[in-house]
Amino acid sequence: MKRTIFVASLLALGVTAAIAQSNVVEQRQGLMKEMGAQTRPLGGMLRGQEPFDLAKAQASLQVLAVNAEKAGPLFPESSKNAEKTDALPAIWENKAKFDSIMTKLRTDAQTAIASIKDEASFKTELPKVLQNCGACHNDFRKKSS
User: What is the reported pLDDT for 9?
Assistant: First the structure.
């Protein structure tokens, strides 16, 4: 009887760990998709394909800042080998660099929120924010085929 309970407990623990791992992957994917959704209108404004809207720009930058802060804990070592993720093993091999990019993204987004007053300042500040996205994608995300 004790052996059965022990085996059942181990199985339950394994299932719980698998669910937790998939949940963290789903959480970070949701977070990254939300960040991507925010960069589309920002990019449109930057390229002149969409009219500049200060409130919209600041709201999008706020999402980037908040999500960059939330991102680090969503990449625990236990999720390194998760399926259905574009995260490369390089994240865990160089976690300090990954975390520093997230910190810089947050800081640059916060600086942009405070600095952007008009379209000219937007076009100066936004590229500083977006370069963090590119730096992370280049080193830590699988390339789309």
Answer: 58
